[in-house]
Amino acid sequence: MNRLGRKTLLVSITLLVFIGLWQAYVSAFKVPVQILPGPALFVSKFVGIMSMSNMGTHIGITLYEIFIGFVIGCVCGLLFGYLLAKYPVLERMFNPYIVLIQIAPKISIAPLFLLWFGLGATSKVALVILVVFFPIMVNTIVGMRSVEKNMQDLLHILRANRWQRFWSVEIPYSLPSIMSGVKVSTTYAITGAVIGEMIGAKAGLGYLVILGSETYDINMILTAVLLLSLIGLILYVLSNQLEKKLLRWHESQEVIM
Q: Are 193 and 145 within one domain?
């Protein structure tokens, strides 16, 4: 059996064990179905909820918020990270304010965005941009400053221009750090979108969590959480595959590949 087969088997066994423990817990302690349904009942309810006519809309809105906010947040983080890494005076000027915004609890910022941008997707996209921006920016700064001094001296001797320095040295040296920031930001993007939807929204998976809580519908809550987890898993796998392709040459991939 190859490595992929062993990994698939291990994941399948873990899932079966989890389902077995779930059913055993529900049966042994006679947990009411409105508190926690058994696996079989949940699957039945899950199929019913997924067949709702507006379910695709809720999923699509959350995906839209995550994707647009993630892309804009990454671009802004890369741009600001590069500028702050190359110009320390800009870092001294803006870094205190960036850190101040970042350490503020996002659940307290979300209501402000709702007041400014309304209940639509714009406020959630803005929150996703905010939570994605900081890790990308920090990792870009770290990556840009990881270029060895000997390499910088060599480029100076070779009289490489700024564009040549950027493509031939700065990008390869900073890419491992940037990709680490991208992988972390995928989970932050989901968290930002869900927080925004839970504070105030007309649709979305976070909205379904709040709706399920208000109507005491545990199956709706579990369905929304499961879908969000699957989205997070897919985004992580995609970012991991992108990292493998871009960093095929890097020593960090020797054990993985």
A: yes
Instruction: Tell whether 172 and 61 lie within a shared domain.
Output: yes
Instruction: Report the alpha-carbon distance of residue 131 to residue 69 in Å, rounded.
Output: 9
Could you list the pLDDT tens digit for every one of the 257 residues in the chain?
Answer: 677 677 788 888 998 999 999 999 999 999 999 899 999 999 999 999 999 889 999 999 999 999 999 999 999 999 999 999 888 888 888 888 888 888 888 888 888 898 899 888 999 999 999 999 999 999 999 888 877 777 766 676 777 777 777 777 778 888 889 999 999 999 899 999 999 999 888 889 999 999 999 999 999 999 999 999 999 999 988 998 888 888 876 655 654 44
- Domain extent for 9: 1-31
Residues 105/239/181/14 CA torsion (nearest 10 deg): 70
72 and 197 assigned to the same domain:
yes
Cβ partners under 8 Å of residue 223, min gap 6: 45, 46, 49, 50, 208
Number of domains comprising the chain: 2
Identify whether residues 193 and 109 lie together within a single domain.
Answer: yes
Same domain, 70 and 183: yes
Burial class from Cβ neighbours inside 10 Å (0-12, 13-18, 19+) for residue 149 reads exposed
**pTM of the shown model:** 0.85
Chain centroid offset of residue 244 CA: 18
In angstroms, the CA 27 to CA 80 distance is 54
Q: Residue 130 belongs to a domain with what CATH number?
A: 1.10.3720.10
Residue 93 sits in the same domain as residue 1: no
